[in-house]
Every structure is written in C-alpha cells, then in structure tokens.
Amino acid sequence: MGDDVNVRYSDKDLAEFKALIQEKIEKAKRDLELIKSAYMNDLNNGTDDTSPTFKAFEEGSETMSKEANSQLAIRQEKFIRDLKNALIRIENKTYGVCRVTGKLIAKERLKLVPHATLSIEAKNMQQ
C-alpha cells in the first residue's frame, strides 16, 4: 500500500477552490438571468433597450437569435450544474483528483476550469 491512496488537495486548498467556485456560480447565475431577460426582451419585440449590460455578451449583433439565446442558456445551466457538482466533490474531498489517472489536476487548470474532472494528461489521452 503506497500512500498515494490519499492523493488530494489540502483542506486549505479546498477552501480556496470552494470560494472561487461559489463566486463563479454567482456570476454564472447572473449571466443566466441576463441571457433569459434578453430572451424575454426579444419576445417583447425588442424595443426595450434598457439592458446595456447585455451588450457585453454580444458585440457584433444587436440581438441574438432566439436559438442562439436558448443554446446559451442551456450551456450556462449546465455550467452551473457542473460547478455545483464540483462543490459536492469539495465536500467529499475528492475535488481536483483526475477521474482517469487518479492524480491531482494542476491548480492552474482548476483555476481556469474549476469544474474539471480530468487532468490535461487524461484529456490528451482521450483525443
């Protein structure tokens, strides 16, 4: 028995990731609201131009197509779900462990993709 059974991030690290993820969930929820309200605005014939914040999403076109909009909402909801699952992994102290190699996922990667369950190594193997 090696001690690599216990490969995991320290509680201090986990607490850091938890804060990061909770922040991302809040932001993702706000983004989702923006997407949904823009979608509602579209339905109200789009004359209501009171959401300049939404412009940040889409520089190019004035209003996004309804399809693109609902795709965006679906992606955003999945993202929120993935982040919430990451919080569960933090509670179980399994967060940040690659589900293929069992090694720790690099901190840099987790900061960029906090809901990652694969190390870069495992991701490359899948290609």
Structure description:
With 127 residues, the protein is mainly α. The chain is 60% helix and 0% strand. The protein contains 5 helices and no strands. Helix 1 (11-43) packs antiparallel against helix 3. The mean pLDDT is 84. Pfam families: zf-dskA_traR (PF01258). InterPro entries: DnaK_N, Znf_DskA_TraR. This is TraR/DksA family transcriptional regulator.
Residues in helices, as a percent range: 55-70%
Largest sheet: none
The total count of strands amounts to 0
The tally of helices reads 5
- pLDDT below 50 for ≥5 consecutive residues: which ranges? none
- End-to-end separation in angstroms reads 32 Å
Q: What letter string, H or E per element, gives the SSE order?
A: HHHHH
Average pLDDT metric: 84
Based on CA atoms alone, the radius of gyration comes out at: 19 Å
Structural class: mainly alpha
Strand content: under 5%
Q: What characteristic shape results from the CA principal axes?
A: elongated
Keywords: Metal-binding, Zinc, Zinc-finger
Pfam families: zf-dskA_traR
Protein name: TraR/DksA family transcriptional regulator
Domain Zinc finger DksA/TraR C4-type: 94-123
The gist of it:
Helix content is 60%, strand content 0%. The model has no long low-confidence stretch (mean pLDDT 84). It has helices at residues 11-43, 52-55, 66-91, 107-112, 120-126.
